[in-house]
Amino acid sequence: MEKKRESGEILEHMLLEEVKIEDIHYIDPPDEWNPVLHQKEPNVPPVLIEEKLQEDEKEFKEYCLLAHHRSFWKANAKGQFTIRALVVRSSVQISLAHESIRNCTEEALLFDALLRNGLCENRSRLSELLGYSRARITQILNLLKLPPEMRRKLLLTDDISEFQLRPIVRIADKRDRKNMFNHLIKGKLTGRQMALFVDEKERDVEYDNEPLADIEDLMDADVQVDESEMKDSEESIDEAGSSAVVQPAYTAELTQLLKLRSSEWEKELEKRGVSRIDMEFLKGIFKLQTGLYRVAVDILEGVIEANPYYAPAYFYVGKCKNLLGDPGSAENALRSALELLPEEPDYLVELAIVLEKLKRDSEASAFYKKAGSIRKKSQMGDAR
Q1: N or C, which end of the chain is more exposed by having fewer CB within 10 Å?
Q2: What pairs with residue 51 in β-bridges?
Q3: Hey, which residues does 341 pair with through a beta bridge?
Q4: Using one digit for the tens of pLDDT, what is the confidence trace for 47-84?
Q5: Domain-located, residue 142
């Protein structure tokens, strides 16, 4: 089994450059940052990119800090004159820099800098290079829509995922957004809890004067999305996607309609009132069933772009990528599906299969066991 490398191990064999700290443009640490609290963290070489700037008709270069801010802040606080860093200049360095990053905000900063400076010409090229879907690239870049003070605080921890932050990005009201963010930092709400709260806010549900009380209720609740709510939340492929997580039970009913297998199946689905986003999902599954895996991926990624909470679309992208012999991309898609539905046994089994192909047998075994345990509990519940 291949042991997963730590951030420092990934970069330590790279040719690092000695860079003057005064030549580096960086984000200041938040007021609550205390270097003493991070002393035990490894000093991972910062990731930089060299940017060309122009001032008073003169062109000059400046290094921009993209990742491993805490290591840089510690070095700066100690009064170091220079620091050894990885300066991203090629696709090889892009892949290694990305592999070393554990912080979702730093991942967004890396993506933005690569696109802004032309090291990746567009998001499609970036998705090919990193094995991400285009939708996933967009989701991560959307974190840069958060206010600067929030992004600075996120640099203090690697424990908060993009999925947990996704609903906050969509909140327009500054007070609600700040309250939700602060509670996420303190209480570690799950992404599903945040999504449900935002969904209710957008439906103009009335709350008490203190909205945090409702968020606290969510923390203790067994978060479930019933099928009727799911159907009401489905929207057109041309409109913004719902924040309610689309469940496999719902899409299983849709895929049953594909058994019509006639040239008129799309017309039949329209007669039954299937929405456009569901129709696109079914087209993707149909292409998968006929062996057109690449076409299926393109269609299903369009579904994800329209509705980032369409969990089965991530799952089937993972299946297609696995069938195409790209287990790395398959793993990314399946983990996105499991972020939305962590207790879905089919998703766990498919990820275990992919991990076996990646020679990560211990991880695969754990996912097989978890899937078996969930199915056993489900069968015991049905037997009662």
Answers
A1: C
A2: 62
A3: none
A4: 999 987 766 667 777 899 999 999 999 999 999 999 99
A5: no
Q: Which residue has the tokens 């609740």?
A: 221
Cβ neighbours of 151 (radius 10 Å): 19
List Cβ neighbours of 264 (8 Å cut-off, separation of 6 or more): none
Find, among 113, 116, 111, the residue nearest to 136 by Cα.
111
Count of the separate structural domains present in the chain:
2
SS3 content of the chain, % helix, strand, coil (to 5): 60, 10, 30
What CATH number has the domain bearing residue 338?
1.25.40.10
Query: Would you state the pLDDT for residue 105?
Result: 95
Q: What is the largest CA-CA distance in the chain?
A: 78
The predicted pLDDT at position 232 comes to 36
Q: Per-residue pLDDT tens for 210-232? A: 444 444 444 444 434 333 333 33
Q: Is residue 278 part of a domain?
A: yes
Burial of 261 (0-12, 13-18, 19+ CB in 10 A): exposed
Would you state the pLDDT for residue 192?
A: 54
Q: How far, CA to CA in Å, does 176 sit from each of 172, 173, 208?
A: 8, 5, 13
Q: Which residue has the higher pLDDT, 148 or 278?
A: 148
User: Is it the case that residue 188 has pLDDT exceeding 70?
Assistant: no
Domain end, chosen from 88, 114, 130, is at 130
Residue range(s) defining the domain that contains residue 334: 227-343
CA distance 35 to 39: 6
Q: Which residue has the tokens 């979702």?
A: 104
Contact status, residue 131 vs residue 332, Cβ threshold 8 Å: yes
The answer for residues whose C-beta is within 8 angstroms of residue 93's C-beta and 6 or more apart is: 14, 86, 87
